[in-house]
Specification:
It is built from eight helices and no strands. It is mainly α. It has two domains: about 5-50; about 55-115, Homeodomain-like (Arc Repressor Mutant, subunit A).
Length: about 120
């Protein structure tokens, strides 16, 4: 079956932004397409692998929550994003940005750095 990969990507993007930690297998099952079709749509549109795209969406969601909800604890944000622990969120943020969630909250990236 032939798919409109750009149209499919729009649905993938909405879904991944809403639930950035959902696995590729579950996403494929919920969308009724194969894993490879999702991977192809993401690579064609973003020039990134699905994992890279998913990581970017997770990082953008994390940054948004850290900066727009300053009264919300790091622990609450971790659970809102689907992490099983604060430590898991801390490792993800540190490996992605070199900063801790607290530091990222205080000094969010701007411009080009935020879009990467």
């Amino acid at each position: 079956m032939a798919y409109d990969l750009h149209g499919l990507f729009e649905a993938i993007e909405r879904d991944v932004k809403a639930k950035p930690r959902r696995s590729l297998d579950i996403l494929a099952k919920d969308m009724g397409v194969s894993r490879n079709t999702i991977k192809k749509a993401v690579v064609l549109t973003t020039k990134r692998s699905f994992r890279e795209f998913q990581t970017k969406c997770m990082l953008m969601s994390t940054l948004e929550l850290l900066t727009t909800l300053p009264g919300k604890s790091i622990k609450e944000i971790a659970f809102d994003l689907g992490f099983r622990s604060t430590r898991s969120l801390e490792r993800f943020v540190k490996s992605s940005t070199g900063l801790s969630p607290s530091d990222l909250r205080k000094h969010p990236p701007t411009g080009e750095r935020a879009a990467q």
